[in-house]
């Protein structure tokens, strides 16, 4: 590969969940402000690639099928050989996984930045402290800021391409990979059928994996909402980005849609259950609202990602969240955007 027509090449490796990909996009923006003639390449998953392609600060997205054709050590070696053709000046690896760390080691670059909170962090030439008391955006930015000697903790909102057209739909994303991150189906149905919501247009969104959850919600709604649209399982990621971008506001669990909403300037209401905002993955928009239980639960948080079921079988962290809390948040956002 001939890279003689470009300036410095920088690589960002982020092959985690969709939300993690969104939260790493500001790294590319920061690099571009520091090295305007540079070329920024992002290595991510097949699922994450469409999101990264909507970021103007990323010059090229390389898809890494880590659970398919590129799986295993042979896949890591194949990808590393391809990446070495770019002659990267610096490699930044916010993803704290064994796989990503090994891949970073195999890439020929003098500077390799990763977090110290990693079982094989010694593979990086430069280890940066993973500050658990900071937002994930700040943590990711600390890798690129360290290279330029910048100690700032300023949050930079991620940015995705969007049309700029807004409509009156309230977007609801009730799904999550993790069961303990999902507000119960009957609660979503109760919200949709609340008198305040019956006067509003509502769109349900989600991936194919969320279809069963949404169908259960729709069964409970029983066709009683006059302006309800279901797009779950119908849109690809780029279409989902546009739907969220055009919406009045988004209501989501602690999952990827909340981060997409922030990146397209759509106010978001995020519902927290087994996880907590203190982990550093909360929405950072000016109008965003965090919803969590008012009860003091000794069992919460029970996990940093989510679980298949409540460990103590009560699910109080989600069951105790009231519909009125969401309605009040919607009213607050609507009043702020008049």
From TrEMBL:
Pfam families: Glyco_transf_9
Any one Gene Ontology BP term: lipopolysaccharide core region biosynthetic process
UniProt keyword list: Glycosyltransferase, Transferase
Gene3D superfamilies per record: Glycogen Phosphorylase B (3.40.50.2000)
Leader sequence residues: none
Record's keyword annotation contains Transferase: yes
Coiled coil (UniProt feature): none
An annotated Gene Ontology molecular function: ADP-heptose-lipopolysaccharide heptosyltransferase activity
GO cellular component, one term: cytosol
Keyword Transport: no
UniProt protein name: ADP-heptose--lipooligosaccharide heptosyltransferase II
């Amino acid at each position: 590969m001939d890279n003689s027509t470009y300036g410095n090449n920088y690589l960002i490796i982020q092959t985690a969940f969709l939300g993690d990909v969104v939260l790493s996009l500001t790294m590319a923006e920061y690099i571009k402000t520091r090295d305007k003639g540079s070329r920024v390449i992002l290595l991510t998953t097949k699922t994450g690639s469409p999101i990264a392609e909507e970021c103007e600060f990323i010059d090229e997205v390389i898809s890494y099928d880590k659970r398919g054709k590129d799986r295993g050590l042979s896949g890591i070696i194949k990808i590393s050989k391809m990446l070495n053709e770019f002659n990267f000046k610096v490699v930044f690896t916010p993803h704290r996984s064994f796989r990503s760390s090994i891949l970073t080691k195999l890439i020929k670059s003098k500077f390799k930045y990763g977090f110290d909170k990693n079982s094989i962090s010694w593979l990086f030439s430069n280890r940066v402290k993973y500050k658990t008391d900071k937002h994930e955006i700040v943590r990711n930015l600390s890798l690129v800021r360290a290279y330029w000697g910048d100690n700032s903790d300023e949050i930079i909102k991620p940015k995705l391409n969007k049309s700029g057209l807004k409509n009156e739909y309230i977007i609801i994303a009730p799904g999550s990979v993790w069961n303990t991150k999902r507000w119960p189906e009957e609660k979503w149905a109760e919200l949709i059928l609340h008198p305040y919501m019956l006067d509003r247009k509502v769109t349900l969104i989600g991936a194919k994996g969320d279809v069963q959850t949404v169908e259960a919600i729709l069964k409970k709604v029983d066709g009683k909402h006059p302006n309800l649209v279901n797009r779950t399982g119908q849109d690809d990621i780029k279409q989902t980005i546009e739907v969220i971008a055009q919406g009045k506001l988004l209501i989501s669990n602690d999952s990827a849609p909340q981060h997409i909403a922030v990146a397209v300037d759509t106010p978001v209401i995020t519902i927290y259950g087994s996880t907590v905002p203190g982990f550093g993955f909360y929405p950072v928009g000016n109008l965003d609202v965090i919803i969590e239980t008012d009860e003091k639960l000794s069992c919460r948080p029970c996990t940093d990602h989510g679980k298949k079921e409540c460990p103590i079988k009560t699910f109080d962290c989600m069951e105790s969240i009231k519909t009125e809390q969401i309605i009040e948040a919607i009213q607050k956002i609507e009043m702020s955007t008049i």
